[in-house]
Design a protein that fits this description.
three-stranded antiparallel sheet, mainly alpha
Protein backbone atom coordinates (compact mmCIF):
# COMPACT_ATOMS: atom_id res chain seq x y z
CA UNK A 1 0.00 0.00 0.00
CA UNK A 2 1.52 3.31 -1.14
CA UNK A 3 -1.40 5.60 -0.32
CA UNK A 4 0.53 8.17 1.73
CA UNK A 5 3.30 8.41 -0.84
CA UNK A 6 0.84 8.93 -3.69
CA UNK A 7 -1.09 11.53 -1.71
CA UNK A 8 2.14 13.39 -1.02
CA UNK A 9 3.08 13.40 -4.71
CA UNK A 10 -0.38 14.65 -5.63
CA UNK A 11 -0.12 17.48 -3.11
CA UNK A 12 3.39 18.37 -4.23
CA UNK A 13 2.33 18.63 -7.89
CA UNK A 14 -0.65 20.85 -7.06
CA UNK A 15 1.47 23.06 -4.79
CA UNK A 16 4.26 23.43 -7.35
CA UNK A 17 1.73 24.34 -10.02
CA UNK A 18 -0.27 26.83 -7.96
CA UNK A 19 2.50 28.40 -5.86
CA UNK A 20 5.47 28.58 -8.25
CA UNK A 21 4.65 27.86 -11.90
CA UNK A 22 1.34 29.61 -12.53
CA UNK A 23 1.98 32.71 -10.38
CA UNK A 24 4.95 33.63 -12.58
CA UNK A 25 3.31 32.82 -15.91
CA UNK A 26 -0.02 34.48 -15.11
CA UNK A 27 1.65 37.62 -13.72
CA UNK A 28 1.04 40.99 -15.33
CA UNK A 29 4.83 41.41 -15.49
CA UNK A 30 5.24 39.31 -18.65
CA UNK A 31 2.33 40.89 -20.55
CA UNK A 32 3.29 43.34 -23.27
CA UNK A 33 0.86 46.21 -22.86
CA UNK A 34 2.42 48.11 -25.76
CA UNK A 35 2.27 45.55 -28.58
CA UNK A 36 0.05 42.89 -27.08
CA UNK A 37 0.72 39.29 -26.24
CA UNK A 38 3.63 38.30 -24.04
CA UNK A 39 7.20 39.54 -24.11
CA UNK A 40 9.60 37.48 -26.19
CA UNK A 41 12.29 37.35 -23.54
CA UNK A 42 12.71 37.99 -19.82
CA UNK A 43 16.18 37.48 -18.39
CA UNK A 44 17.11 35.63 -15.21
CA UNK A 45 17.45 39.07 -13.59
CA UNK A 46 13.84 39.84 -14.64
CA UNK A 47 14.93 42.29 -17.33
CA UNK A 48 12.44 42.62 -20.19
CA UNK A 49 13.71 42.48 -23.78
CA UNK A 50 10.91 43.76 -26.00
CA UNK A 51 13.05 43.53 -29.14
CA UNK A 52 13.02 39.73 -29.05
CA UNK A 53 10.85 38.15 -31.78
CA UNK A 54 7.75 36.24 -30.72
CA UNK A 55 7.56 32.50 -31.37
CA UNK A 56 4.62 30.30 -32.28
CA UNK A 57 5.91 27.52 -30.03
CA UNK A 58 5.80 29.76 -26.95
CA UNK A 59 2.41 31.24 -27.87
CA UNK A 60 0.82 27.82 -28.37
CA UNK A 61 2.35 26.47 -25.17
CA UNK A 62 1.06 29.41 -23.15
CA UNK A 63 -2.43 28.86 -24.55
CA UNK A 64 -2.19 25.16 -23.71
CA UNK A 65 -0.93 25.64 -20.14
CA UNK A 66 -3.51 28.26 -19.17
CA UNK A 67 -6.37 26.37 -20.84
CA UNK A 68 -5.61 23.07 -19.11
CA UNK A 69 -5.03 24.86 -15.80
CA UNK A 70 -8.47 26.47 -16.10
CA UNK A 71 -10.09 23.13 -16.97
CA UNK A 72 -8.35 21.29 -14.12
CA UNK A 73 -8.36 23.96 -11.41
CA UNK A 74 -11.44 26.00 -12.44
CA UNK A 75 -9.33 29.11 -11.85
CA UNK A 76 -10.68 32.37 -13.30
CA UNK A 77 -7.23 33.97 -13.64
CA UNK A 78 -6.12 31.02 -15.76
CA UNK A 79 -9.29 31.36 -17.85
CA UNK A 80 -8.54 35.04 -18.47
CA UNK A 81 -4.94 34.27 -19.44
CA UNK A 82 -6.05 31.38 -21.67
CA UNK A 83 -8.37 33.71 -23.58
CA UNK A 84 -5.68 36.40 -23.81
CA UNK A 85 -3.09 33.88 -25.07
CA UNK A 86 -5.49 32.26 -27.55
CA UNK A 87 -6.50 35.61 -29.06
CA UNK A 88 -2.85 36.59 -29.43
CA UNK A 89 -2.05 33.22 -31.00
CA UNK A 90 -4.69 33.76 -33.69
CA UNK A 91 -4.20 37.48 -34.20
CA UNK A 92 -0.43 37.45 -34.40
CA UNK A 93 0.49 34.04 -35.83
CA UNK A 94 -2.41 32.53 -37.77
CA UNK A 95 -2.01 32.49 -41.57
CA UNK A 96 -5.48 33.34 -42.86
CA UNK A 97 -4.57 32.67 -46.50
CA UNK A 98 -2.87 29.26 -46.36
CA UNK A 99 -3.79 28.01 -42.91
CA UNK A 100 -1.39 27.03 -40.18
CA UNK A 101 0.67 29.73 -38.52
CA UNK A 102 3.85 31.75 -38.94
CA UNK A 103 6.58 30.44 -36.64
CA UNK A 104 8.25 33.77 -35.92
CA UNK A 105 6.97 37.36 -35.89
CA UNK A 106 8.27 40.62 -34.50
CA UNK A 107 6.95 42.24 -31.36
CA UNK A 108 4.94 44.54 -33.63
CA UNK A 109 3.46 41.55 -35.49
CA UNK A 110 5.49 41.65 -38.72
CA UNK A 111 6.25 38.21 -40.16
CA UNK A 112 9.91 37.24 -39.78
CA UNK A 113 9.71 33.63 -40.93
CA UNK A 114 6.92 32.11 -42.99
CA UNK A 115 7.99 28.47 -43.21
CA UNK A 116 5.79 25.91 -41.44
CA UNK A 117 7.90 23.62 -39.23
CA UNK A 118 5.85 20.67 -38.01
CA UNK A 119 7.35 21.09 -34.55
CA UNK A 120 5.93 24.62 -34.30
CA UNK A 121 2.63 23.99 -36.09
CA UNK A 122 1.88 21.30 -33.52
CA UNK A 123 1.50 24.02 -30.91
CA UNK A 124 -1.05 25.93 -32.96
CA UNK A 125 -3.15 22.76 -32.98
CA UNK A 126 -2.43 21.96 -29.33
CA UNK A 127 -3.22 25.46 -28.11
CA UNK A 128 -6.49 25.60 -30.03
CA UNK A 129 -7.54 22.09 -28.99
CA UNK A 130 -6.79 22.87 -25.34
CA UNK A 131 -8.71 26.14 -25.48
CA UNK A 132 -11.71 24.45 -27.12
CA UNK A 133 -11.63 21.62 -24.57
CA UNK A 134 -11.59 24.13 -21.71
CA UNK A 135 -14.08 26.69 -23.02
CA UNK A 136 -16.07 25.13 -25.87
CA UNK A 137 -14.98 27.89 -28.27
CA UNK A 138 -16.11 26.79 -31.75
CA UNK A 139 -13.61 28.97 -33.64
CA UNK A 140 -10.72 27.37 -31.77
CA UNK A 141 -12.02 23.92 -32.71
CA UNK A 142 -12.26 24.93 -36.37
CA UNK A 143 -8.63 26.09 -36.42
CA UNK A 144 -7.58 22.87 -34.69
CA UNK A 145 -9.45 20.75 -37.26
CA UNK A 146 -8.11 22.83 -40.15
CA UNK A 147 -4.56 22.36 -38.90
CA UNK A 148 -5.16 18.63 -38.42
CA UNK A 149 -6.37 18.32 -42.03
CA UNK A 150 -3.29 20.17 -43.28
CA UNK A 151 -1.02 17.85 -41.32
CA UNK A 152 -2.75 14.80 -42.75
CA UNK A 153 -3.10 15.94 -46.37
CA UNK A 154 0.02 18.09 -46.88
CA UNK A 155 2.61 17.11 -44.29
CA UNK A 156 2.19 13.36 -43.79
CA UNK A 157 4.76 11.21 -45.60
CA UNK A 158 3.31 7.83 -44.66
CA UNK A 159 1.32 6.51 -41.68
CA UNK A 160 2.72 8.00 -38.48
CA UNK A 161 5.52 9.87 -40.28
CA UNK A 162 5.56 13.56 -41.23
CA UNK A 163 7.81 16.04 -43.03
CA UNK A 164 9.91 18.15 -40.66
CA UNK A 165 9.35 21.45 -42.43
CA UNK A 166 7.08 22.99 -45.06
CA UNK A 167 6.91 26.23 -47.02
CA UNK A 168 4.18 28.72 -46.29
CA UNK A 169 1.98 27.15 -49.02
CA UNK A 170 2.65 23.60 -47.77
CA UNK A 171 5.39 22.26 -50.00
CA UNK A 172 8.24 20.24 -48.45
CA UNK A 173 11.10 22.46 -47.28
CA UNK A 174 14.64 21.52 -46.18
CA UNK A 175 15.87 21.37 -42.60
CA UNK A 176 13.95 21.43 -39.36
CA UNK A 177 12.67 25.00 -39.66
CA UNK A 178 12.03 25.90 -36.03
CA UNK A 179 11.08 29.36 -37.19
CA UNK A 180 14.53 30.36 -38.41
CA UNK A 181 15.93 30.87 -41.90
CA UNK A 182 19.42 30.18 -40.55
CA UNK A 183 20.83 26.67 -40.71
CA UNK A 184 21.24 25.08 -37.31
CA UNK A 185 24.16 22.67 -36.90
CA UNK A 186 22.38 21.02 -33.99
CA UNK A 187 19.60 19.92 -36.32
CA UNK A 188 21.46 19.19 -39.56
CA UNK A 189 20.48 15.78 -40.90
CA UNK A 190 20.54 13.68 -44.05
CA UNK A 191 18.00 14.46 -46.73
CA UNK A 192 14.79 12.57 -46.07
CA UNK A 193 15.48 12.02 -42.38
CA UNK A 194 12.63 12.78 -40.01
CA UNK A 195 12.19 13.63 -36.36
CA UNK A 196 9.31 11.93 -34.55
CA UNK A 197 6.68 14.68 -34.12
CA UNK A 198 5.94 13.89 -30.50
CA UNK A 199 4.38 17.29 -29.90
CA UNK A 200 2.04 16.76 -32.83
CA UNK A 201 1.18 13.42 -31.25
CA UNK A 202 0.45 15.24 -27.97
CA UNK A 203 -1.77 17.68 -29.86
CA UNK A 204 -3.68 14.80 -31.48
CA UNK A 205 -4.15 13.18 -28.06
CA UNK A 206 -5.73 16.37 -26.76
CA UNK A 207 -7.88 16.89 -29.87
CA UNK A 208 -9.12 13.30 -29.73
CA UNK A 209 -9.82 13.58 -26.01
CA UNK A 210 -11.89 16.70 -26.67
CA UNK A 211 -13.79 15.43 -29.73
CA UNK A 212 -13.52 11.62 -30.13
CA UNK A 213 -13.09 12.32 -33.85
CA UNK A 214 -12.47 9.03 -35.71
CA UNK A 215 -9.98 10.47 -38.22
CA UNK A 216 -7.90 11.95 -35.40
CA UNK A 217 -8.00 8.61 -33.62
CA UNK A 218 -6.79 6.79 -36.74
CA UNK A 219 -3.88 9.20 -37.22
CA UNK A 220 -3.02 8.86 -33.55
CA UNK A 221 -2.94 5.06 -33.76
CA UNK A 222 -0.62 5.31 -36.76
CA UNK A 223 1.76 7.51 -34.78
CA UNK A 224 1.85 5.03 -31.92
CA UNK A 225 2.55 2.15 -34.32
CA UNK A 226 5.34 4.14 -36.00
CA UNK A 227 6.98 4.88 -32.67
CA UNK A 228 6.79 1.25 -31.56
CA UNK A 229 7.73 -0.36 -34.87
CA UNK A 230 10.30 2.10 -36.24
CA UNK A 231 11.60 4.31 -33.45
CA UNK A 232 12.12 1.73 -30.72
CA UNK A 233 15.75 0.63 -30.55
CA UNK A 234 15.84 -2.80 -28.90
CA UNK A 235 19.64 -2.80 -28.70
CA UNK A 236 19.74 0.30 -26.49
CA UNK A 237 16.20 0.04 -25.08
CA UNK A 238 15.32 3.60 -26.07
CA UNK A 239 13.55 5.60 -28.76
CA UNK A 240 15.45 6.96 -31.74
CA UNK A 241 14.65 10.65 -32.01
CA UNK A 242 15.71 11.18 -35.64
CA UNK A 243 15.70 8.45 -38.29
CA UNK A 244 16.46 8.08 -41.98
CA UNK A 245 13.85 6.82 -44.44
CA UNK A 246 14.49 3.18 -43.58
CA UNK A 247 14.37 3.77 -39.84
CA UNK A 248 18.14 3.91 -39.27
CA UNK A 249 19.21 6.14 -36.39
CA UNK A 250 20.75 9.51 -37.28
CA UNK A 251 23.70 10.41 -35.04
CA UNK A 252 24.71 8.93 -31.70
CA UNK A 253 23.13 11.37 -29.24
CA UNK A 254 20.35 9.93 -27.09
CA UNK A 255 17.88 12.16 -25.25
CA UNK A 256 16.71 10.59 -21.99
CA UNK A 257 14.13 13.34 -21.54
CA UNK A 258 12.52 12.30 -24.81
CA UNK A 259 12.61 8.63 -23.80
CA UNK A 260 10.57 9.62 -20.75
CA UNK A 261 8.22 11.94 -22.61
CA UNK A 262 7.52 9.59 -25.52
CA UNK A 263 6.92 6.62 -23.21
CA UNK A 264 4.03 8.07 -21.24
CA UNK A 265 2.72 9.89 -24.35
CA UNK A 266 2.34 6.57 -26.18
CA UNK A 267 0.64 5.07 -23.15
CA UNK A 268 -1.76 8.02 -22.96
CA UNK A 269 -2.60 7.66 -26.66
CA UNK A 270 -3.10 3.87 -26.65
CA UNK A 271 -5.18 4.00 -23.47
CA UNK A 272 -7.34 6.82 -24.83
CA UNK A 273 -7.99 4.91 -28.06
CA UNK A 274 -9.19 1.87 -26.12
CA UNK A 275 -7.18 -0.47 -28.36
CA UNK A 276 -6.10 -3.25 -25.99
CA UNK A 277 -3.66 -4.86 -28.42
CA UNK A 278 -2.00 -1.51 -29.12
CA UNK A 279 -1.89 -0.70 -25.41
CA UNK A 280 -0.24 -4.05 -24.66
CA UNK A 281 2.41 -3.41 -27.33
CA UNK A 282 3.08 0.05 -25.90
CA UNK A 283 3.33 -1.21 -22.33
CA UNK A 284 5.75 -3.96 -23.31
CA UNK A 285 8.08 -1.60 -25.17
CA UNK A 286 7.84 1.26 -22.70
CA UNK A 287 8.53 -1.08 -19.81
CA UNK A 288 11.91 -1.87 -21.39
CA UNK A 289 12.63 1.82 -22.04
CA UNK A 290 11.72 2.87 -18.52
CA UNK A 291 13.74 0.09 -16.89
CA UNK A 292 16.73 1.29 -18.92
CA UNK A 293 16.15 4.87 -17.75
CA UNK A 294 15.62 3.82 -14.15
CA UNK A 295 18.74 1.69 -13.93
CA UNK A 296 21.21 3.70 -16.02
CA UNK A 297 20.17 7.30 -16.69
CA UNK A 298 20.14 9.02 -13.26
CA UNK A 299 23.03 10.66 -11.47
CA UNK A 300 24.09 10.09 -7.86
CA UNK A 301 21.55 12.69 -6.63
CA UNK A 302 18.63 11.01 -8.41
CA UNK A 303 18.39 13.55 -11.22
CA UNK A 304 17.86 12.45 -14.82
CA UNK A 305 20.78 13.14 -17.13
CA UNK A 306 19.70 15.09 -20.21
CA UNK A 307 21.18 12.46 -22.47
CA UNK A 308 24.41 10.88 -23.60
CA UNK A 309 26.56 9.98 -26.58
CA UNK A 310 25.77 6.35 -27.29
CA UNK A 311 29.18 5.89 -28.90
CA UNK A 312 31.02 6.75 -25.67
CA UNK A 313 28.35 6.41 -22.99
CA UNK A 314 29.35 9.85 -21.71
CA UNK A 315 26.36 11.68 -20.16
CA UNK A 316 25.81 15.43 -20.38
CA UNK A 317 26.90 17.22 -17.24
CA UNK A 318 24.12 19.75 -16.76
CA UNK A 319 20.45 19.03 -16.07
CA UNK A 320 17.74 20.88 -17.99
CA UNK A 321 14.37 21.80 -16.50
CA UNK A 322 12.11 20.14 -19.05
CA UNK A 323 13.79 16.72 -18.90
CA UNK A 324 13.49 16.77 -15.10
CA UNK A 325 9.74 17.32 -15.43
CA UNK A 326 9.34 14.50 -17.95
CA UNK A 327 11.30 12.19 -15.65
CA UNK A 328 8.76 12.58 -12.84
CA UNK A 329 5.81 11.60 -15.03
CA UNK A 330 7.65 8.72 -16.69
CA UNK A 331 8.70 7.16 -13.40
CA UNK A 332 5.13 7.42 -12.11
CA UNK A 333 3.96 5.67 -15.29
CA UNK A 334 6.63 3.02 -14.67
CA UNK A 335 5.20 2.40 -11.21
CA UNK A 336 1.64 2.33 -12.55
CA UNK A 337 2.69 -0.17 -15.21
CA UNK A 338 4.82 -2.54 -13.11
CA UNK A 339 3.94 -1.88 -9.43
CA UNK A 340 7.71 -1.91 -8.89
CA UNK A 341 8.29 0.58 -6.07
CA UNK A 342 11.74 1.42 -7.44
CA UNK A 343 9.89 3.56 -10.00
CA UNK A 344 7.88 5.30 -7.30
CA UNK A 345 11.06 5.99 -5.33
CA UNK A 346 12.77 7.41 -8.43
CA UNK A 347 9.72 9.62 -9.03
CA UNK A 348 9.85 10.92 -5.46
CA UNK A 349 13.60 11.51 -5.55
CA UNK A 350 13.34 13.43 -8.82
CA UNK A 351 10.48 15.52 -7.42
CA UNK A 352 12.54 16.28 -4.31
CA UNK A 353 15.48 17.30 -6.51
CA UNK A 354 13.26 19.68 -8.48
CA UNK A 355 11.85 21.17 -5.31
CA UNK A 356 15.29 21.67 -3.78
CA UNK A 357 17.33 22.81 -6.78
CA UNK A 358 15.07 23.92 -9.66
CA UNK A 359 12.27 25.89 -8.00
CA UNK A 360 13.05 29.62 -8.06
CA UNK A 361 11.80 30.91 -4.73
CA UNK A 362 12.71 34.49 -5.54
CA UNK A 363 11.00 35.06 -8.89
CA UNK A 364 8.84 31.95 -9.24
CA UNK A 365 8.77 29.10 -11.77
CA UNK A 366 11.99 27.08 -12.25
CA UNK A 367 15.61 27.63 -13.18
CA UNK A 368 16.65 26.39 -16.64
CA UNK A 369 19.82 24.36 -16.09
CA UNK A 370 21.64 23.25 -12.97
CA UNK A 371 24.57 21.13 -11.88
CA UNK A 372 24.65 19.71 -8.35
CA UNK A 373 27.88 18.26 -7.02
CA UNK A 374 29.81 17.93 -3.76
CA UNK A 375 30.15 21.71 -3.61
CA UNK A 376 26.41 22.34 -3.92
CA UNK A 377 24.05 23.89 -6.48
CA UNK A 378 25.34 25.64 -9.62
CA UNK A 379 22.94 27.43 -11.96
CA UNK A 380 24.60 27.06 -15.35
CA UNK A 381 24.16 27.83 -19.03
CA UNK A 382 22.63 25.18 -21.26
CA UNK A 383 19.49 24.51 -23.29
CA UNK A 384 17.30 27.66 -23.31
CA UNK A 385 20.10 29.61 -21.61
CA UNK A 386 19.55 31.43 -18.32
CA UNK A 387 16.33 33.28 -19.22
CA UNK A 388 13.12 33.13 -17.23
CA UNK A 389 11.13 33.39 -20.46
CA UNK A 390 12.17 32.89 -24.08
CA UNK A 391 11.20 30.86 -27.12
CA UNK A 392 12.00 27.60 -25.32
CA UNK A 393 11.55 28.50 -21.64
CA UNK A 394 7.85 28.33 -20.99
CA UNK A 395 5.19 26.80 -18.72
CA UNK A 396 4.68 23.71 -20.90
CA UNK A 397 6.71 20.77 -19.58
CA UNK A 398 6.50 21.55 -15.88
CA UNK A 399 2.79 22.40 -15.88
CA UNK A 400 2.15 19.26 -17.93
CA UNK A 401 4.09 17.28 -15.31
CA UNK A 402 1.80 18.65 -12.61
CA UNK A 403 -1.35 17.84 -14.58
CA UNK A 404 -0.09 14.31 -15.27
CA UNK A 405 0.98 13.63 -11.69
CA UNK A 406 -2.30 14.91 -10.29
CA UNK A 407 -4.31 12.74 -12.69
CA UNK A 408 -2.16 9.61 -12.35
CA UNK A 409 -1.93 9.70 -8.56
CA UNK A 410 -5.70 10.23 -8.34
CA UNK A 411 -6.17 7.16 -10.53
CA UNK A 412 -3.74 5.11 -8.45
CA UNK A 413 -5.32 6.25 -5.20
CA UNK A 414 -8.74 5.23 -6.48
CA UNK A 415 -7.29 1.82 -7.31
CA UNK A 416 -5.81 1.54 -3.80
CA UNK A 417 -9.19 2.30 -2.25
CA UNK A 418 -11.06 -0.24 -4.38
Amino acid sequence: MQKERLQKLNGWARQNLTQYILPFWTSDFIIDHEYGGFYGRVSAAMEIDNTEPRGLTLAGRMTYAFSVAYRVLDDEVCKERATYAYRDLIRRFYDGEYGGAYPTVSAQGDVISDDKPTYCEAFLLMGCAAYYYATGDADALEVAYQTFRLMETKVKLRPGCYHNNMTRDWKPAPGMGFGSKKASPAFSMPEGAVMFPHHLCQAYVLLYKATQNAAVGQALAEMVDFACDTLYDADYRCFKTIVEKGGTRVGTRQSFGHDCEISYLLQNAASLLGDHALAAKVDNICKQVLIQVLEHDYDAWGSLYNGCDLATGEPEKSHVWWAQAESVTAMLYGYELTEDTRFLSACETQADYIEKYFVDRIHGDWHNNVIVDETGLHIVDGMHGFDKLNGGKCPFHNSQMCFEVMERTARLLKKEDS
